[in-house]
Specification:
about 400 residues; alpha/beta; Aspartate Aminotransferase, domain 1; Aspartate Aminotransferase, domain 2; 2 domains; seven-stranded mixed beta sheet; globular; binds pyridoxal-5'-phosphate; transmembrane helix; biotin biosynthesis
């Protein structure tokens, strides 16, 4: 078989397994209503939890900064791409998260590869929850450290592995809010275990930043964990912040280590300064507009209540990520397609994004939804499930 034939065979196999991916073509701004491939939908699959991706203040900040700074950053942070706006965003994020310093990364994926690889190597061990985001798993595998996965949210399973380890440095890595499940890591217990075992704790708060905690500072605020208890706090700016990029917050030594040794930080072009300006504006909205967070919280409760009333069994989540476990990939895809035919966008998440036989509909809520949108979705879902399941 020629190399191309073998690629084509792998694609065919993926289709037969109902695991083939395609890209819906978005023809509008992000929001509760979107236009995709020429048709309007109620959008229940974005990570724009607070509706900031298309917020007037955020857009205005982006436009103003493009006028002042142009588009491209022109270089990496260490050469000549680190602008005043990047710097200001780092300082404001440090104050917001209650950490000494912050370092911006161009994406969350790169941040996770960079952080883990700068902190651990061959003599060390990394301990990851089985359901961690792909970027954390890839970071751990790439580091060359002994890579161990523990059972999801199972502190006892982790404790056993930690005490058996003779590694020089031990790094525990978890999602704060699990991206395909919506549940939170038991961070209070994990932080205590890390201290007891002299291990580091790193949390990826991609789905908590902006939405969890009174101020929206994320899981560290929600669980009241300071820099000593949670020394490596990573989050992204492309989800609730509605912008793009990522950051890590922690001690002076951590941040300087990353500047010196994190290759995905060093060898890449800095984000456009206007993107940093947009993130600064969304940070201001996150801080000042508490009503958005409260509305989202209210809608989450409303959705759960409506689903329960219709006999739809959800996974145990109190966050904006409300997955509905289906199991079979073909069935999850069929339900997602039937929802689309009724004007609802809901992603069918299938392996390898989730473990085998746990395909699911990943329903996400945003502050821009209304109770009526949610009621309509739940009614459609109940009817489709009755037909297809
Ligand atoms: C989205 C996501 C990332 C990747 O962030 P990007 O900025 O999109 O690269 C990392 N971790 C988790 C948990 C995520 O959900």
């Amino acid at each position: 078989m020629s190399p191309l034939d073998s690629l084509a065979a792998a694609l065919t196999q993926r289709k037969q397994q109902h695991l083939y991916r395609s890209r819906p073509l978005l023809e509008s701004a992000q929001g509760a209503r979107v236009c995709v491939d020429g048709k309007n939908y109620h959008n229940f699959c974005s990570n724009d939890y607070l509706g900031l991706a298309n917020h007037p203040q955020v857009i205005a900040a982006f436009q103003q900064a493009a006028n002042d700074y142009g588009v491209g950053s022109g270089g990496s942070h260490l050469v000549c791409g680190h602008s005043r706006l990047h710097h200001q965003l780092e300082e404001e994020l440090a104050a917001f998260t209650g950490r000494d310093r912050v370092l911006l990364f161009s994406t969350g994926y790169m941040a996770n590869l960079g952080i883990i690889n700068a902190l651990v190597g061959k003599q060390d061990a990394v301990f990851e929850d089985k359901l961690n985001h792909a970027s954390l798993l890839d970071g751990g595998l790439l580091s060359g450290a002994k890579f161990q996965r523990f059972l999801h949210n199972d502190v006892a399973s982790l404790a056993k592995k930690l005490s058996a380890s003779t590694a020089t440095r031990k790094l525990i890595v978890v999602d704060g809010v699990f991206s395909m499940d919506g549940d939170c890591a038991p961070l209070t217990e994990l932080a205590a275990l890390a201290q007891q075992q002299n291990a580091w704790l790193m949390v990826d708060d991609a789905h908590g930043f902006g939405v969890l905690g009174e101020q929206g500072a994320g899981c560290a605020e929600h669980f009241q964990l300071d820099q000593q208890q949670l020394p490596i706090l990573m989050a992204t700016l492309g989800k609730a912040a509605g912008s793009f990029g990522a950051f890590v917050a922690g001690s002076e030594v951590l941040i300087e280590t990353l500047i010196q040794f994190a290759r995905p930080y060093i060898y890449t072009t800095a984000l456009p300064p206007a993107v940093a300006a947009a993130s600064l504006a969304s940070l201001a909205v996150i801080r000042d507009d508490r009503a958005r967070r409260q509305k989202l919280q209210h809608l989450i409760g409303h959705f759960k209540q409506q689903a329960q009333a219709q006999g739809i069994a959800l996974m145990p989540s109190d966050t904006a990520i409300q997955p509905l476990l289906i199991g079979d990939s073909a069935k999850a895809l069929a339900i997602s397609q039937a929802l689309a035919a009724q004007g609802f966008m809901v992603g069918a998440i299938r392996p390898p994004t989730v473990p085998n036989n746990t395909a699911r509909l990943r329903i996400t809520l945003t502050a821009d939804h209304s109770e009526q949108h949610i009621n309509d979705l739940v009614v459609a879902l109940a009817q489709i499930m009755a037909e297809l399941c």
